[in-house]
Write the structure tokens for this entry.
Amino acid sequence: MIEKHFIQQGLKKMMLEKYLEPELRSAGFIGVDVVKTPIATRVIIIVTRPGIAIGKKGKAIKNLTKELEEKFGYENPQIEVQGINNPELNAKACVDRIKTLIEKGYSWRSVVYRVVEDAISNGAQGIEVVLQGVLAGKGNRAKHERIAKGYMKKAGEQAYLVDYAKGVAVPKIGAIGIKVRIIRPGIVFPDKRKISDIVKGKVDVKDNEKVIENKEGVETKTESENTEVSEKPKIETQNKEGVAEEVKEEATELVEAKSNNKGVPNESI
């Protein structure tokens, strides 16, 4: 069955992500994508710090290619490392940042507010960070904290446009669950569009069409005027030729009349 083949590929990709996440944690591992070609298998690794993932003289990449061949059975794997321009607008990168700083002993409140402000300053439409776990200290009850800023969509089909990631930080106090949702600057939701903008767009299109029509009308007029101007000298030349022909005909008639008069005697004589 074809369905089993796709399920096996998905499970294989999940196992690969679980394997690469601890290996490339220092490089800021975000995700992996596998593309099969007739010649080789491309493994695209997305990280926040590509230099650490590649290693000195590409040693880390060479070791990874050998392990992918042996453990996962990929034929002739070719690893490509891609970096991210704005890690502040990536939910997985934000989760890893919060996780590492909390595990190092920083206050969760200062870390989360710093992440929220960085995302908004980089152009995010909205961000939400939810923490659950032992936040106050050792021996205290688990708490639920939500810190959000901007616009956020959680329900309906439009929620798939929101970048979502989750993780778990394990400091000495106890486990803390982390959830991050980010709406990137280039995303446009259908319910955020205004009718006035749509109407203005239609009016602008009509105005442009009128301008084009007016330009075409002016061009046709100028063409007709040019044709009229070009036809006028033709008519004048034709008239001049007609007058010249009439003058020639009159001259020939006078010459013939004179020749006739010379041969006929005068009756008076």
Observations:
- Helices lie at 2-23, 50-54, 59-72, 91-104, 108-121, 195-263.
- The chain has three domains: 2-84, 88-192, 194-269.
- Confidence is low (pLDDT under 50) at residues 262-269.
- The longest helix spans residues 195-263.
